[in-house]
Amino acid sequence: MGYGVVCTWGLSQLREQEVVQLAKKCAEEPLSMEEVEIDQFQFVYSVHDPPSMSNDSITINRRQAADHQVKLAICHALAQSTKLCVYEERVIDLVMSTKHLPQHMAEHGTVRISAKEVAQLIGQVFLQRSAVNLLSSVLDTPEFFWSAPDAMQVLYERACEYLELETRVEVLNARFEVGGAHHA
């Protein structure tokens, strides 16, 4: 997938690791080990239930078990969610590394870092903000759904709702708005 994410279904842990290692060798900018994000879902086949997601479990109807488009529709949402997790973690790390600054400024009227360090922190904020803005285009509905049956897009949209993609992007952008207000 174009997100730099690997989705696998039903592989052994060893096989999965082999696939991930191969993908890392092909990556232009592989993530550091600290940034690697792993989401795991269980999946089951059902005789009666339509495809759905709940409680980190994916249900696929047995009649659709051989239809790769069903898994691909779900994979797009999972990949987007996993990619979003990486950016959420980066923003949390940035907030945690600077959270002492407003408190110190409130108590003492100054901060104990140089102007250069302040400029570097602001630069980091802008880099993450622009990365999240670029991520928004990654979170658009993939081209796959332009030619896929409508039911696949509905499944994708349900998966996106379950993974709360839209809300998470809004929260992430809101964190930057609060940060931007302080730097204005």
Automatic annotation (TrEMBL):
Pfam families xrefs: DUF155 (PF02582)
Cellular component GO terms, alphabetical: mitochondrion
Limits of the DUF155 domain: 3-173
InterPro entries linked to this entry: DUF155 (IPR003734), RMD1/Sad1-interacting (IPR051624)
Family affiliation: Belongs to the RMD1/sif2 family.
Protein name as it appears in the record: Sporulation protein RMD1
Organism: Monoraphidium neglectum
